[in-house]
Amino acid sequence: MDESESLSHSKWECKYHVIFIPKCRRKTLYEQLRPHLGQVFKRLSEYKESRIKEGHLMPDHAHMLISIPPKYSVSQVIGYIKGKRAIHLARVYGERKRNFVGQHFWARGYFVSMVGRDEESIRQYIRHQEEEDKRLEQMQLWR
Asked: What are 113's strand-pairing partners?
C-alpha cells in the first residue's frame, strides 16, 4: 500500500509521532480548551501543507501522528502550531484566567519520533493512550 504524497517535483512519505504538553502540565485551563484544540491543530497544520493523520488530546498533553512534507522541518511545523495557538489563547483567555502568563501556554520542548512502516501500531497507541494511563493510575493506587 503506497501512501506517499507529492509536491511539484517529489514524492514523499514523512510521518512523525509528536507529543507536547501545556506549560507545567496545567490541567485546569487545558481541560476547558481541549474540545476546541483538535480542529484548530488540523487547520494550522494545513497552513504548512502538513496533515494530522491521527491525534488525541489527553488531559495534560497532546499526541499526534502528523505527515510533514520534506520542505519543512518538524520544528518549523510544531513551533508554528504551538505558537499560533498560544497567541490566540493569550488574547482570548490571558486577562480572564489566573496563572496564564502571556503567550507561554505550551512547554518549550516536545517529543518526536519518526514513523516507519509500523504506522498502525502508533495509531493504536495514540487511540488507546488515555485508557492505558487510567489503568496505570489505578494500579498505582493499590500500592
From this structure: 17
The active-site residue out of 72, 80, 93, 125 is 125
* 6 beta partners: 11
Q: Of all helices (H) and strands (E), which one includes residue 6?
A: strand 5-7
Return d(Cα 35, Cα 41) in angstroms, integer. 11
> What is the torsion angle, in degrees rounded to the nearest 10, for the CA atoms of residue 78, residue 115, residue 33 and residue 88?
10
Look at strands 5-7 and 10-12 and give their pairing: antiparallel
Catalytic residue flag (residue 93): no
Residues sharing a CB contact under 8 Å with residue 36, sequence separation 6 or more, in sequence order = none
Give the list of residues 6+ apart from residue 70 with CB closer than 8 angstroms, or none. 10, 12, 14
User: What are the mean pLDDT values of the chain's consecutive 10-residue runs (143 residues total)?
Assistant: 69 88 66 75 89 86 90 91 74 56 69 84 86 79 60
The DSSP output letter for 89 is: H
pTM for this entry: 0.74
Residues 122 and 115 sit within 8 Å (Cβ to Cβ): yes
Instruction: Give me the count of residues in the chain.
Output: 143
